[in-house]
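can u do me a favor
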């Protein structure tokens, strides 16, 4: 993997994206970029009143992720981003619209802007999709005990799972490597991380194995 690559992570809340991105960055010397949470000016307002602030939050994330994507693509070394810009529209904005927190007018305006922004972004070299069953996701969310995640329900995670599967059926910007993260402990077991890295190398070389 000597050639510069742009790798995107995708997956439901609690799937392990940040943990894997951190370990891959450390092991492979890749630049890493993470989701904006602590410095997000809309999150607290959004969780207090989702209908009032959903559009504002999605616009903030769109700008943040587009800037992040461009910065990582311009680096001389390989880079990995722990959540892709494409999930914003196809998963989270869609879920907000589905649940009635983003009305039709705002949703269509957002999608139009999203399409314009993403149309000229450099294509990634690989999308790593992390999967885990909803009970596993719920237990991980419970263990990390983030206040902003206290309202997440199994039903919401199941809805996101459905949207992920539908999105990835038509995603064609780059190869996809699907990883079942519930049986892997790449944080504490080096051999598990070795397996993931080997599969990433296979996909980047164009080999056919799509699922780990």
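np, heres the sequence
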């Amino acid at each position: 993997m000597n050639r510069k690559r742009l790798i995107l992570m995708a997956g439901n809340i609690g799937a392990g994206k940040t943990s894997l991105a951190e370990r891959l960055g450390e092991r492979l010397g890749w630049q890493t970029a993470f989701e904006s949470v602590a410095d997000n000016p809309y999150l607290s307002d959004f969780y207090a009143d989702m209908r009032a602030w959903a559009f504002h939050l999605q616009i903030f994330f769109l700008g943040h992720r587009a800037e992040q994507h461009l910065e990582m693509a311009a680096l001389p070394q390989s880079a990995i981003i722990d959540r892709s810009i494409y999930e914003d529209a196809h998963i989270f904005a869609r879920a907000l619209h589905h649940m009635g927190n983003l009305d039709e007018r705002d949703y269509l305006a957002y999608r139009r802007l999203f399409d314009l922004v993403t149309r000229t972004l450099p294509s990634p070299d690989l999308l790593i999709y992390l999967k885990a069953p909803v009970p596993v996701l719920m237990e991980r969310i419970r263990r990390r005990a983030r206040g902003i995640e206290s309202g997440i329900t199994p039903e919401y995670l199941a809805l996101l799972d459905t949207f992920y599967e539908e999105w990835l059926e038509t995603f064609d910007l780059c190869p996809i490597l699907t990883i079942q993260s519930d049986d892997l402990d790449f944080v504490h077991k080096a051999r598990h991380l070795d397996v993931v890295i080997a599969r990433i190398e296979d996909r980047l070389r164009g080999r056919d194995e799509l699922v780990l």
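The chain has one domain: 6-204. hope that helps!!
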